[in-house]
Each structure stands twice: as C-alpha cells, then as structure tokens.
Fold:
Amino acid sequence: MNFSAIHHVAIIVSDYEVSREFYVERLGFEVVRENWRPEKRDWKLDLRVNPTTELEIFAPENPPARPSYPEACGLRHLAFRVSDIEAAVAQLAERGIECEPVRTDDFTGERMTFFSDPDGLPLELHE
Structure:
C-alpha cells in the first residue's frame, strides 16, 4: 500500500465559536467548508492547513472532556512543521498564544515547542 500524504486530521471541540476563532483567526487556517449538521446536532468545519492537508473540526453538544494525565489512548498531539520556529513562536505570541520554551528533540536533534488549543489539545511546532 502506498500512502502519499495525510489527507486530514479530525478533532472534537467543546465550543464551536471559541475553536473557530482560534483555528481561523489566530492560527490563520482557511475555511474550506462550514456546515451545521442538524441530524447530528453539531458543526463541522473543514480547514485548509496546506495544499494537501485539512483539519476537520467537529463541535457536538456536550462532548466529554479530554483526558489529560495519565494520557489516554488516541491522538496524543498534532504537530505542524515550520521553517523558522522563532518566527512562528513570535507570531503566535502576537496573537496571544503562549508556547513552551523551544527545545531540541533528544532523538532527532530537531527543534520544537508546544502550545494548546482552547480544549487543551497539545499542538506542536516542529522545525
């Protein structure tokens, strides 16, 4: 089997408006599709991350809270590649998003940092 790329990643959020503002206005992802799904009583927001990858946001009524520690099985974090980590951290800071200190991965030698979305989902910047 030949997987050529990741098409999309889907996440569930607790507050549609807060998460939409975070991912669209603060992170700058482009809205591809935005739909209220009455049969499921939720919003589905498809965002363009880059030309080949989308982020799907699902906002149902009253989803259970995300487990934190100990970490549960499933998605641990979502990482975005950036070419200049200091510039990306500075841009996030200008938008009111605080990152952890930049550190170097012990195994790859690559630089990275983490920040969180409004529901506490860890998001990584990886240079």
